[in-house]
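Anyone? Bumping this.
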Amino acid sequence: MNSEKTKIAVLGGTGNIGKGMILRLALQNLMEDGVKNEVVIGSRTPETAQEAAKEALEELENCGFDTSDIKITGESNTEAAKEADLIVLTIRFGHVPSLLESIREDLENKIIISPVVPMVKAGPIFEYRPPEEGSAAQAIQARVPESTKVVAAFHNVAARKLQDIVKCKAVHDSIICSDDEEAKKTVMKLTENMGCLKPLDGGPLSNANTVEALTPLLINIAKLNGLKDLGINFS
Amino acid sequence: MNSEKTKIAVLGGTGNIGKGMILRLALQNLMEDGVKNEVVIGSRTPETAQEAAKEALEELENCGFDTSDIKITGESNTEAAKEADLIVLTIRFGHVPSLLESIREDLENKIIISPVVPMVKAGPIFEYRPPEEGSAAQAIQARVPESTKVVAAFHNVAARKLQDIVKCKAVHDSIICSDDEEAKKTVMKLTENMGCLKPLDGGPLSNANTVEALTPLLINIAKLNGLKDLGINFS
């Protein structure tokens, strides 16, 4: 392990959003300003995670990238969280409480990134269903040690755009919220080098509610107006 | 009165958002595809409204437009509502219940457009404070006759951009929500010709909550990131 590299665990990293995130994180090792990192994919079984790690490396090679400076491995969610400096939760909101319970002791002083959006399909449209804490991000904050810094980010990016590392040059805004200014800056720096995202300071975690709610709105607007994989820009 | 023209009342039309709205509505009379209309500004006293009407016409003339086919008048809010086919509520959320109470009997079968955003300044940031109905738009729906069609629109446009009829060519998206498809289409057509807005179908009125919440988020993001008069675009 190279101690200069940030070890990033992507828990639930075998899902749609996780896949693109892993590729975009790994590619930062090839960028001059990228955040040098090692990615550990977390999944319910280490075998699934290891398979996803192998596939991600193959995808990067197939796209023509030199992967000799890239490290992507797979572990169980609990092992991945243990090793990581920074943890991305790409899991469904319903699984958040039990997962946090299982990794709680390994979260001291770490950063957790939440792109989690609690939503349900109600007839033809998606509805945001925030928990009583106000947002998924705040529900996470309520379930981790006090020293853990929760940062809400990456909610409003379409999985397909995130995964399309070669062709997707669209730069959408990504609103980043946190009550910890240092952690927010770290994640904004990470976002700057995701290749398809531009970070915007979204203020405190109490603003995460609106940012999360944008995701079902984007899906609804896309469907209602015959559009696809919408992102958002402020200007 | 030309019966082919839509009579539009802009209640609270002497405020910042109202001013720009009136200019953009009036200008539609000079556009081939514009919705031909007569604007009645509503205010607490007819004198204030008449003064605002005179100023709006002068502003259009000063910008070099021929105002001979444009009609902007001023009335009390109740008189303006009585005459109108379509009513725009550019008032603060706190004033909504008493105003609706005073014009209730003149609302049968009419369209009400709500750009109303209930928000408060909490320390350095703005916070969205929806009423128990879910949004200002839904609170309005609960206070009008059953035949009145409420359309949520024009929440996320900066007053300064709306007022700058000559220079502002920025085209931002405006999300339009309503439970009445015909009324929604009417307002989308109106929006198309506002000169700085592109309408997007935002689905039912229950989606207005997120659209309203975007306004304080836009103000917060602008302040936090050193930006100004932000609008929103989906792509």
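Late reply, but here is one note on the structure posted above: The longest helix of chain B spans residues 46-62.
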